[in-house]
Amino acid sequence: MRIDDVLCFAGLGAFPNDDQAAIRAGAGRDGHFYTGVPVTGGYRRVRQASQALCVVLVLEDGTTVGGDGVSVQYAGAAGRDPVLDAEAAATTFGPVLRDAFAGGDAASFRASSARLDALELPLAVRYGASQALLAAAAAAGRRTIAETVAAEYATGAPLRAVPLFAQCGESRRDGVDHMILREVDELPHGLINHAPTLVGPDGRVLAEYVRWIRDRILDHRASSEYSPTLHIDTYGTIGETFGAGDACAAFLAELGRLAAPFTLRIEQPVHAASRVEQIAVLAQLRGRLRAAGSTVQLVADEWCNTLEDVEAFIAGDAADMLQVKLPDVGGLDASIRALIACKEAGVLAYCGGSCTETERAARIAAGVAMGVGADLLLARPGMGIDEAVMVTRNEMRRTLALVGARSAAR
User: Fold this and answer.
1) Are 263 and 276 in contact (CB under 8 A)?
2) What are the domain boundaries of the chain?
3) Which of the following is catalytic: 325, 360, 380, 393?
4) Are 216 and 184 a contacting pair, CB within 8 Å?
């Protein structure tokens, strides 16, 4: 299947980009806005509307497929690419993509990915283009995204719905109710991004929040069969409160006891200044938890951005679960290989992403997660729980229905 044309234009992301450094430095709040001056390059304000680079491929039979590249919510933090200027990216890199792919064959995603990687494009551009190329390969083979990934990478993964992780944003209590009603597999993310108010003195605020989530599930679940995993993203704020040593491990273990009977995962409990330091501090903290007999699992996010980073975190035995954050990795070929590397190493593979992603990116991510047999998939787009769960869960069910119907017809 030949690609006849490549179109690039600026679109909208689903949730704002936030200057994490400015927020950590004490930027104020005024409703949905942050006040103060941004400190990270590329930001015009501390919170600004996110953009998407939309890439559309026109195939020779008239079929159109596409992908949307974005920068993550906290673009520019912890070694990540700068915030995306989609208009500039479309102007600069649209012609590059057209020259590279117009007239070319779309049948093999891995072959297309090799051509894409040779262009050395910014990650957001690579992400959007790789989505479009994966969708083109699926269209050429008359297969779903999940089947295409499974076939091209020989994953051997049985096609199934991947457990879903929803994020509540700042709707930390009402959002939990929405997730319980939807029976989300893992919840609530929590956005614990400010130590004084969300962890609190001696951790009392966060401890009460974990206890409240546990009780809310027990009080309102439809049946005892619904037993979600609790997963709190703390952005290093636990480390800010307790340091990275024994006191931190003891507090995490206490959170685990409060979460029982549910499993607890803590994402980014401590924030370090480099990848090497991040791996070391998480590995040491994980060792302390295991020595204490705690079942709390650690999830790595920041400084775990690229395929090389994922491989380094695996080698360092740094976490129970690694987030492969698709926009941060860039090309989906590298993301797929990173997820497969986690599976092969016995590390839980989290097909992550960002609330800035679009509905198109969300649907393709669902296919990627199914194709590699990921252990967890972030619901997106946006911070709207019902909408994100609907988009991702429906896409997985749609895939299973299509594959099942074809199997039944044989």
Assistant:
1) no
2) 3-142, 164-409
3) 325
4) no
**164-409 domain in CATH 2.40.128.20?**
no
Residues written for the chain: 410
Q: The tokens of 230 are what?
A: 């609790």
Count the alpha carbons within 13 Å of 79 in the hemisphere toward its beta carbon.
17
Q: Which of 49, 50, 53 is nearest to 126 (CA)?
A: 53
Which pair of tokens denotes residue 290? 């295991």
Torsion angles phi and psi, residue 403, rounded to 5: -65, -40
Residue 195 structure tokens = 């130590």
CB neighbours of 152 closer than 8 A, spacing ≥ 6? 108, 109, 110, 137
* pLDDT tens, residue by residue, 202-245: 999 999 999 999 999 999 999 999 999 999 999 999 999 999 99
How would you list the strands of the sheet with 64-70, edge to edge? Answer: 3-12, 51-59, 64-70
* 83-128 pLDDT tens trace: 999 999 999 999 999 999 999 999 999 999 999 999 989 999 999 9
Phi, psi of 74 (to 5 degrees): -100, 55
Pick the CATH number of 3-142 from 3.40.50.300, 3.30.390.10, 3.40.50.1000, 3.40.50.150: 3.30.390.10
Give the residue among 132, 143, 124 at the shortest CA–CA distance from 102.
132
Those residues with Cβ within 8 angstroms of residue 97's Cβ, 6 or more apart along the chain or in another chain: 6, 8, 55, 119, 125, 129
- 325 noted as active-site residue: yes
**What token pair was written down for 193?**
């991004």
Q: Are 14 and 355 in contact (CB under 8 A)?
A: yes
- Judge if 3-142 and 164-409 fold alike in CATH terms: no
Write phi, then psi, for 106 (nearest 5 degrees). -105, 5
CA 197 to the chain's CA centroid: 25
CA distance 213 to 390: 22
Of residues 210, 100, 230, the one with CA closest to residue 167: 230
C-alpha torsion sign, points 341, 342, 344, 345: positive
Look at the pTM and tell me if it is higher than 0.85.
yes
Half-sphere exposure of 68 (CA within 13 A, CB side): 23
What is the SS3 assignment for 78?
coil
Name residue 378's beta-bridge partners. 165
Q: What is the pLDDT of residues 61-86, one digit of tens each?
A: 999 999 999 999 989 887 788 999 99
Other C-beta atoms lying within 10 Å of the C-beta of residue 313:
26
